[in-house]
Design a protein that fits this description.
about 80% helix, mainly alpha, 11 helices
């Protein structure tokens, strides 16, 4: 679609919203897991989101999916809370010894949770070891040199909280089988899944703060150096691309002169960025203060523009469509300033 010039953002976002449902239906028709297929579709969508020609679509898509994700996660746990009393009643209905049955149910939940944590720990620990060997074989330093692999693996294991995918998977079990009989132990499976979700939340809330104690704090200076290094690389790539850009065939002398002047001005801006990132700490601190002051002033000016648009619209001096377009441009500029 993008390659053929069909790049309307609203159309793309609608397709991306429908993609998980279409993937689920297709996977169920093929006899495989619709839940895992929808997760795989989401992973592919995140890769497609990095395409360089999707700027406007990316802005709209992030806003829409942030709202959808927040709402659906809340609905999933709301559904869990509403269904849990009925689930507990279904698995304990008609039992002779309620306390013995409850102990067995909690033992099932604990056993499944422990197996999940052990599998996750072994998987992540093996990943660290294998990746370290591969990096060593390629002559690269280990990413976590000097850190406790066991502790980091425990953090990742406890951080793998069960949630929407687990609940969606177990709730998708059919009520009846093909012969009309009820799905065996469906209520028990839902109870175990709900119990594992709650157990993972509780254990992570208690265990993660304890494991995080003593770990080195986030190195803001190192993060800033990494950010400057990446900015340098991108700015240098932009300058090289502008320098290598040839003149368009058929351009007249005036157009060629304007193109050269514009290209020189853009490259000067990128070289100014490079000078900022290569300067000493005191100069960078002063530059950050100047940029923060400039950002505040620009935001103040943008909001004054927005108020003037509102005034002109109230006096019926501007068309709704023109106002919407101008407001969108102002919102994007303000969001960029606040993000920066």
């Amino acid at each position: 679609m993008i390659g053929r010039g069909w790049d309307d953002p609203a159309t793309h976002v609608v397709f991306l919203l429908l993609l998980p449902f279409a993937t689920y239906v297709l996977a169920e028709r093929l006899g495989v897991s619709g839940i895992l297929a929808a997760v795989a579709a989401g992973m592919m969508q995140s890769r497609q989101d990095l395409l360089p020609r999707q700027t406007t679509t990316r802005l709209l898509n992030h806003s829409v999916w942030a709202m959808v994700e927040y709402s659906f996660n809340g609905l999933v746990f709301l559904l869990l809370g509403l269904q849990l009393p009925d689930i507990v009643g279904a698995v304990t209905r008609g039992v002779d010894n309620l306390w013995l049955t409850a102990a067995q149910l909690f033992a099932y939940v604990l056993l499944v949770f422990l197996v999940l944590m052990v599998l996750r720990f072994l998987w992540m620990y093996a990943y660290w070891r294998i990746s370290a060997r591969i990096r060593q074989w390629r002559g690269r330093p280990s990413t976590f040199a000097g850190q406790s692999w066991t502790r980091l693996t425990l953090l990742l294991s406890l951080g793998g909280v069960r949630g929407s995918v687990t609940l969606a998977g177990v709730m998708s079990l059919p009520l009846v089988l093909g012969d009309g009989s009820g799905f065996p132990q469906r209520d028990l499976l839902i109870f175990i899944a709900a119990g594992v979700i709650l157990a993972s939340l509780a254990v992570a809330s208690i265990g993660l703060p304890l494991l995080l104690k003593g770990l080195p704090a986030d190195d803001d200076e190192e993060r800033d150096r990494e950010r400057r290094r990446l900015w340098r690389k991108t700015a240098e790539a932009a300058i090289r691309a502008l320098e290598a850009q040839a003149e368009e065939p058929g351009e007249d002398a005036e157009t060629a002169a304007l193109a050269a002047e514009t290209k020189a001005r853009i490259m000067a801006e990128y070289r100014d960025l490079l000078d900022r990132h290569d300067s000493d700490e005191q100069t960078r601190l002063r530059t950050r203060k100047v940029r923060a002051l400039e950002s505040r002033l620009r935001v103040h000016a943008l909001r004054a523009q927005r108020l003037e648009l509102y005034r002109l619209r109230r006096e019926h001096l501007l068309d709704d469509e023109i106002v919407s377009g101008l407001l969108r441009d102002l919102d994007i500029r303000e969001a960029q300033l606040q993000q920066g």
